[in-house]
Specification:
The complex is a heterodimer.
Chain A (H helix, E strand, L loop, with lengths): L9 H14 L4 E5 L2 H9 L2 H4 L4 E5 L4 H4 L2 H11 L4 E5 L13 H6 L3 E4 L3 H10 L4 E8 L4 H13 L5 E8 L1 H10 L7 E5 H7 L5 H7 L3 E4 L3 H17 L4 E3 L11 H10 E8 L3 E10 L8 H4 L16 H4 L22 H6 L5 H9 L10
Parallel strand pairs in A: 1-2, 1-7, 3-4, 3-5, 5-6, 7-8, 8-9
Antiparallel strand pairs in A: 6-11, 10-11
Chain B lengths: L28 H15 L2 H4 L5 E5 L2 E10 L5 E2 L2 E2 H14 L4 E12 L4 H18 L2 E10 L7 E10 L16 E4 L5 H11 L15 H9 L4 E5 L5 H13 L2 E5 L7 H10 L13 E4 L4 H10 L7 E7 L6 E4 L5 E3 L13
Parallel strand pairs in B: 5-6, 10-13
Antiparallel strand pairs in B: 1-2, 2-7, 3-4, 5-7, 8-11, 8-12, 9-11, 10-12, 13-14
The chains are: A alpha/beta, B alpha+beta.
């Protein structure tokens, strides 16, 4: 697989790891912002290979996990309506609302469909004028341009039966919120490469200056991540705090300007609640007034749904003995409440999140597997 | 502003649904829960509790293998075969994984009103041809018709009966530390072939299902006297779920080497694009064999000499460490745990 194998080369990985070990003299806490990076770290076992001085703190960058409970509940209410065909990316179907998920809505007769692009939902709205087609528009700056284009396309086509439930979130305000948290321990950030491929790096320079924190724009392949970590550690050890682009093959300083233009055209910044974290001011996007007629929240009158986060998520079941600890991503040293493994739990069903922990701090013989 | 990064908790997927959801059919934890907590208590008996691909029963001194399987697939016709191939080969394979020589099949058809007869005819012809090719006889069956909208054209269920040769004992509970894990060829082909036609996705080269009968390959291994302890065909839930089941049944750990996994280009491409893992993708013509270490190379040679096994590989080993847990050594030399999935594997948002 050209252009991927090059970034998974074990010999190069070993050299990068050796270089990280050579420069590191003390413990550092580095946050990878993006859930995609968390996924790659776990999927490739990168955390197991790093020197013990490096603590990787998994950031709140899984769009699936940070989508607020209230929005999930609104999605469930909309999807349950008989006239609605509710379209979503696959991994959102599994995310629990207050007491249900989209799979259950589908099981109860709701027309819930997995799509691979918001434009699939637009096409469906064209094909089925008798149905109200709703797309679940969530995610960071990465998925937002396609969602914005879908709205523009729906307007061009004059569609009156297409709408979008929008809950976009933005990375820079989250970095600010993390740095301003009184209990912050993050000393450097690996910025999300795909977010920066859209937005560029210009938003991150001011964060570096304001907080004196190194930010390294990082990709997703194993070597990308190791290179991001190497650069972050090198900066930290030298007492520097700079913005670096370790993902130049995808990220330009100015970003993707046509994409930014369509984002500006369709969305406006708004306060946004992040699941499990709380409200971060000016950290999300919503549809502008001009496109409000495509806003599913207004169309289906779900504004009154205002659920608050339960203090106990499903990981509370560990305490009740319903789940083994090693099945719960909220358990363990890496997965402290501040460093969730949400991306892997929700997006890939814990294919490694829980057990990924055991090798690090539970003697292998003590691992108990839930039956 | 009071932000609580301390209280960040992950929204775990639900596990206790009050009604059936699609994930109950995904071959993961939800499927296992359904069988374990709903069906097993209702049917409780020793043969069922083996939870093998088929049951092994003794009748008049002969050890018989029995297996039944329902086939639902959309579309009914796909690159590499149709639901008829799956229905015959799938049950033959379940018998073969018990170490049995398949002899007889039954078939029942739940047909949706409006199903074109010519399509049904093709499916029946396919089943006949597949049975003849495998040397099994389709001896009885049943047909039912349901209202339009109550089925995807046709659902097929097949039941198979086979004889287990004297001295053959294979089962998911018989793996032991030191065994090597073999796979008979490239993984993920069937799942990606179905995904590509169902969703209209293209992943570079065209990709066809690997549906095939595996009894001949199993016979070759057993006839050669290889110490085969466990056999499974990694269908729903893929290699990952199969190995987790064996690890749990035998109380052993399994260590995989990801670099040894034969993953074809289009399957890799599909998984990269959709954020999926080839280890969880369905196969319909592959077997996983856990073979005593001293016989592993010989077993590999036998698999590779078979027309269906050219890309066979040794992909891991059984260990006494971390019982019940499957761990993979990753491409860059790290390790990760390969858990059972909860329901179905879903495309990731980004």
């Amino acid at each position: 697989m050209k252009y991927l194998d090059e970034f998974r080369n074990p010999e190069v990985a070993a050299r990068l790891l050796e270089e990280i070990r050579r420069v590191i003299t003390r413990p550092w806490a580095i946050m990878e912002v993006c859930g995609g990076q968390t996924h790659s770290i776990i999927r490739n076992g990168i955390d197991q290979l790093l020197p013990p001085e490096i603590e990787l703190i998994h950031g709140p960058g899984c769009p699936v996990c940070v989508t607020p409970l209230e929005i999930i509940d609104k999605a469930l209410a909309i999807a349950a309506r008989p006239e609605v065909t509710f379209c979503s990316f696959g991994d959102m179907l599994r995310v629990p609302g207050s007491n249900s998920d989209l799979f259950q809505v589908k099981s109860s007769g709701g027309d819930v469909r997995i799509v691979y692009s918001p434009l699939d939902a637009v096409r469906l709205a064209q094909q089925r004028p008798d149905r109200e087609v709703v797309f679940f528009g969530i995610g960071f700056e990465t998925t937002a341009p396609a969602n914005a284009m879908a709205v523009v396309q729906a307007e061009r086509l004059g569609l009156t039966n297409f709408s979008m439930l929008v809950s976009h979130v933005l990375v820079p305000p989250a970095i600010s919120a993390i740095m301003e948290s009184p209990r912050n321990r993050v000393q450097a950030f690996l910025a999300a490469g795909h977010v920066c491929s859209v937005m560029g790096t210009w938003q991150y320079g001011p964060l570096v200056e304001r907080y004196g924190v190194p930010i390294v724009v990082t990709g997703f392949e194993p070597l990308d991540i190791l290179e991001g970590i190497r650069r972050a550690v090198t900066q930290l050890e030298a007492g520097r705090a700079e913005l670096e682009n370790a993902y130049p093959r995808a990220v330009r300083p100015e970003g993707n300007q046509p994409a930014q233009a369509v984002l500006e055209q369709v969305f406006e910044v708004t306060d946004r609640t992040w699941r499990g974290i709380g409200m971060i001011p000016q950290s999300g996007w919503r549809l502008r007034e001009r496109y409000r007629r495509f806003d599913a929240e207004a169309r289906f009158e779900v504004g009154h749904i205002n659920t608050a986060e339960s203090p106990l998520c499903r990981s509370g079941e560990v305490l009740q003995g319903l789940l083994k600890p090693n099945q719960c991503p909220a358990f363990g040293k890496q997965c402290t409440p501040r460093t969730p493994l949400g991306a892997t739990m929700v997006s890939s069903e814990g294919a490694c999140a829980a057990y990924y922990q055991y090798g690090r701090f539970i003697p292998a013989g003590d691992v108990e597997v839930a039956r | 502003m009071s932000l609580s990064f301390e209280d960040w908790t992950c929204p775990l997927p639900l596990r206790d649904y009050p009604a059936i959801v699609m994930g109950h059919g995904g071959g993961g934890k939800l499927s296992a829960d359904l069988v374990r907590h709903l069906f097993l208590p209702a049917f409780r008996n020793a043969a069922l509790e083996q939870l093998g691909d088929g049951a092994v029963v003794e009748v008049g001194g002969a050890r018989l293998a029995l297996s039944t399987d329902a086939f639902v697939v959309r579309p009914l016709f796909f690159p590499g075969g149709n639901i008829g191939d799956l229905a015959v080969n799938g049950t033959i394979n379940d018998l073969a994984m018990c170490g049995a020589r398949p002899l007889y099949l039954t078939a029942s058809f739940i047909i949706e009103e409006g199903m074109p007869l010519d399509q049904l005819g093709i499916i029946a012809e396919t089943m006949g041809a597949a049975a003849r090719r495998a040397g099994v006889t389709l001896v009885t069956g049943d047909t039912k018709v349901v209202d339009r909208g109550h089925g995807d054209g046709v659902f097929v269920s097949t039941t198979g009966l086979g004889v287990i040769p004297d001295g053959v004992r294979v089962g998911p509970e018989l793996a032991r530390p030191g065994d090597m894990v073999l796979i008979s060829g490239e993984i993920g082909l069937h799942g990606v072939a179905i995904l590509s036609v169902r969703e209209g996705l293209e992943f570079g080269a065209a990709i066809a299902s690997d549906t095939a009968p595996l009894h001949d390959m199993v016979a070759a291994l057993l006839d050669a006297g290889c110490a085969v302890h466990a056999l499974r065909d990694p269908t729903r839930g893929g290699v990952a779920s199969t190995l987790n089941e064996i690890a749990a049944a035998s109380g052993v750990g399994i260590r995989l080497d990801e670099r040894a996994l034969p993953v074809p280009g289009p399957v890799r491409a599909a998984c990269e694009i959709l954020g999926m893992d080839p280890l969880y993708i369905a196969n319909e013509g592959k077997l996983v064999a856990l073979v005593a270490r001293e016989d592993a190379e010989r077993a590999l040679a036998i698999l590779r000499a078979h027309p269906l096994g050219a890309r066979a590989a040794i992909i891991g080993e059984v260990t006494a460490e971390h019982p019940g847990v499957v761990v993979a050594r990753t491409g860059i030399g790290g390790t990760r745990v390969v858990d059972m999935q909860v329901g179905e594997q879903l495309p990731r948002i980004c």
